[in-house]
Amino acid sequence: MVVSIVTVCYQAEATLAEAMQSVLAQIPALPEGWRLEYLVVDGASTDGTLAIAQSFPAEHVRVVSEPDEGLYDAMNKGVRLATGDVVGILNADDAYAHDRVLAEVLDALERTGADGAYGDLDYVDGQDPSKVVRRWKAGDYVPGAFRRGWMPPHPTLFLNRRCYADHGLFNVTLRSAADYELMLRMIHRHHIQLTYLPQTLVRMRTGGTSNATWGNRWKAHLQDWQAWRLNGYHPSPWTLLAKPLRKLPQFLTRS
Question: Which terminus, N or C, of the chain has the lesser number of Cβ atoms within 10 Å?
Answer without folding.
Answer: C
